[in-house]
Each structure stands twice: as structure tokens, then as C-alpha cells.
Amino acid sequence: MQAIFLVDEGRNVKTATDRAAEAIETAETIFADEMGANLDLSPAARVALIATIATAIEAAVAEGQERP
């Protein structure tokens, strides 16, 4: 298996997995902000929505990793 390494401005090496995890976290936040605005949620409710989305994604990833 070949690992892909990318260098950011701080000269820290990041793997493709690191960058994918960051992209997912950003997507979670953007989605929750958009949904929160559409649903007129309070800031606390938006944070709860982000936590719920993150938990669901983490559970799905864990389930996918358990499959043979």
C-alpha cells in the first residue's frame, strides 16, 4: 500500500488520511451550520447537531472497518 504525503505551510507532513479527516470535520461543521441556519437553531443546538453528525460518521467508519 502506498502512502501519500502532503506538506502544508508549516512543513508538517500529513497523510491522505489526515487530510481526509480534516475535510470530514470541516464538512460536518459546514453542514451543521447550514442546517442550523435553515432550522433556526441556537448556537448550542448547532453544537449538538455537529456532535450528533460526528458520532454517526465515526460509528459508520468503525462499522466499515469491522467488515472483512
Folded structure, characterized:
With 68 residues, this protein is mainly alpha-helical. The protein has a domain at 24-68. Helices cover 71% and strands 9% of the residues. The protein contains 2 helices and 2 strands, in the order ββαα. The protein has helices spanning 16-39, 43-66; strands at residues 5-7, 13-15. Strands 1-2 form a two-stranded antiparallel ribbon. A hairpin with a 5-residue loop joins strand 1 (5-7) and strand 2. Helix 1 crosses helix 2 (43-66). Mean pLDDT is 76; it is low at 1-5.
Which tags fit this structure?
2 strands; disordered N terminus; 68 residues; mainly alpha
Distance between the termini: 18 Å
Helices and strands, in order, run as EEHH
Number of helices: 2
Low-confidence stretches: 1-5
Main sheet properties: 2 strands, antiparallel
Give the strand line-up of the largest sheet: 1-2
Mean pLDDT: 76
Shape designation: flat
Percent in strands: 5-15%
For the secondary structure, the number of strands is: 2
Helix content: over 70%
Based on secondary structure, the structural category is mainly alpha
Radius of gyration: 15 Å
